UniProtKB/TrEMBL annotation:
Key word Glycosyltransferase present: yes
Species of the source: Oceanobacter antarcticus
Enzyme Commission designation: 2.4.99.28
Pathway this chain belongs to: Cell wall biogenesis; peptidoglycan biosynthesis
Protein name: peptidoglycan glycosyltransferase
Coiled coil: none
SUPFAM superfamilies in UniProt: beta-lactamase/transpeptidase-like, Lysozyme-like
Annotated family: In the C-terminal section; belongs to the transpeptidase family.
Entry superkingdom: Bacteria
Key words, A-Z: Carboxypeptidase, Glycosyltransferase, Hydrolase, Multifunctional enzyme, Protease, Transferase
Catalytic activity annotation: [GlcNAc-(1->4)-Mur2Ac(oyl-L-Ala-gamma-D-Glu-L-Lys-D-Ala-D-Ala)](n)-di-trans,octa-cis-undecaprenyl diphosphate + beta-D-GlcNAc-(1->4)-Mur2Ac(oyl-L-Ala-gamma-D-Glu-L-Lys-D-Ala-D-Ala)-di-trans,octa-cis-undecaprenyl diphosphate = [GlcNAc-(1->4)-Mur2Ac(oyl-L-Ala-gamma-D-Glu-L-Lys-D-Ala-D-Ala)](n+1)-di-trans,octa-cis-undecaprenyl diphosphate + di-trans,octa-cis-undecaprenyl diphosphate + H(+)
Amino acid sequence: MNWRYPLQLPEHNEREFARVVVDRNGRTLRAFPDAQGVWRLPVTLEQIAPAYLQAVIQYEDRWFYFHPGVNPVAIARAAWQNLRCGCVVSGGSTLTMQVARRLYPHTRDMRGKLQQALRALQLEWHLSKDEILALYLNYAPMGGVIEGVEAAAQMYLDKPAADLSLSESALLAVLPQAPSFLRPDRHPQRARAARDKVLRRLLRFQAIDNAAYQQALLDPVFGRQPATPQQAPLLARRLIQAYPQQRLIRTTLDGDLQRELSQQLQRDIQLLPRQHSAAVLVVHNSSHQVRAYIGTADFGDSQRLGHVDMVQAIRSPGSTLKPFIYGLALDQGLIHGASLLTDAPRLRQQYQPGNFSAGFSGPVTPQQALHFSLNLPAVQVLEALTPAHFYAALSNAGFHYQLPLAARPNLSLALGGGGVSLWELVMLYSSLMNQGQLFPLQSVQQPITAQANQVPRPLLTPEAAWVTADWLRNPLPDRSRSVAVIQPRPFGWKTGTSYGFRDSWAIGITPEYTVGVWFGRPDGTPSPGYFGAVTAMPTLQRVITMIDRQPHWPAPPSQVQQINACWPLGRLASNTPADQCHRSVSGWSIRQLVPPTLPDSANPIAANPLPVLVNLQGQRINARCENNGKNSTQRLIQLALWPVILESWIPAAQRLSHQLPAPAPGCASSLIIGRTLQITGIEPGEHIRSTQRNSAGERQLPNLALGANGGVGMRYWYINGIYRGSSAERHVLTIPLRRNGEQHIVLIDDQGNSDRMTVYAD
């Protein structure tokens, strides 16, 4: 062998090392062993505690930086000691020779020793001392399938090699001497004796002082059973597949937060059936970096399909996109914070959803509609905005709202008529704290993602983003489970539940963080009774309390103003005559935009008062009934009319029938406007009880016999927000109740006249 020839090192590239995914501080989240199942984590000299480097050099090879790879003095001393004892007292191998033995295995006879020495000389010829030392630190045997100081530090001590103390450094420095015999997890007493031997040697050679020596002796020796880290296992798997050439992937995750939230989610999921899972995603808004990624409630639970990553799964978003309908409409000048929206059945419309709460609220503001997650106002605003514009705005900003095959944007987008991932949803909500700009989320630190497109795309103006976020700052729902620590400052939140109770969502925002929570079954099976406010929301509260308990909300932009508007017309109170201002409502406006009340098919004149011609006595007339030369006595009055469908929610004095002046004599026949609609057959607040019992002797739910007086055309009946049937004039409709307790009855006729009543079933 000519050791001057170019050295052919064995292949020790990335494939020989375990592939490691670490958190933002370098702590291992998950590692994947090499092809032989060996845990060898790459490390450089700069990434190792100086105490460990000192211990290795002083104990293993004091003259490492001076000899050519073989130390004749050490070999002679070892031979003499062994000869005198008749046993093996010490070895004469240098660190370079130990590296040679690891890279070029040989027989344990004299010929093998000679080969080892020649290989050591060859290594010294081609490599620097630091390069040889780095090889030793990466390949030194540490027990079982563990090799190298970094793997040993993390497996036995749960810390990186950079954080090793003097005591821990001495322990790991001696371990390669007899890895199986000195393993601290199996033989702590032997490991302690060996560690103390290293410390005495360091003291004798004045590498440490007596105070450091005494302190190190006091440290206990403990090694945990080597276990593969399993933090963020699904993200780690995804990144390993995405970056096949990277052996070390440094994520943006906070390992401590990741571990704490994973444990919390495992506790929370125990309250749900065995087939349920959950996911949590935490994003730092200003950096757009993911701080916690929990794709499953329990990675090792096959019943919960723990291998399925629910952060990336495409699911129906339920009501979680409603805030962005209102935000875009605000930017388009369609609504303002005090706009009059209608929460009542949609008359003569193809798309007629109900509310999740099984009832109607009548007139509401955008913030009230969001707080109570009302479906009908969101559909009303989306209809004015148009589904095509809403879908295009999201798409242009980089948000992927997946529609069913061959489907076009329609009104169902407001209520989850498509698919999104938790990843995309959190990115979308984070834009509310980034002045309406959508930034791609970052889970891997630079420079791996240096080529990624981090250019933001606009969705909302800063003013609309701020107002939308502020609308989400509402009191927490009473029906959610209590949390251990009271949240002293509110945060923005929105819950959602997809059709059939398949997905439960809760999204929270603070100026610093955006948090997304999903609960449900990964296989998409419905879970009746489990919805966002009772499953996902309690977990969201705990996460927000943990990471940002005192959120300080930013001040509104200069182009955001508080205004007072008058209902029903929706105009500024200062520009509305007193007799047309039936209710003054305050809210936010942006860029001095104060659009009037939205018109729709059931309320085409919503934005304009109704002109009415009256005579000198204030009686209603028209050209046909009074055209007798007394035009000088005629005048127009302007009536601010509520949408007809809302009349049963407003005071009687503000309804059309009460605002209209009485007709003048001889004019009544030409001024018919319809008749007041009224529910009959039952009284408000009445308690209804059935006398019928089923075969088990239990009392059956009662039937309601409902009729109506007045109105025009067909009558449409809703009970607890659900359409239950229609009836003609002078027809009584019998409707069986579906539950006990409070029953909300709403009646609407063909002209939009309405009446409502609350009764009780016992």
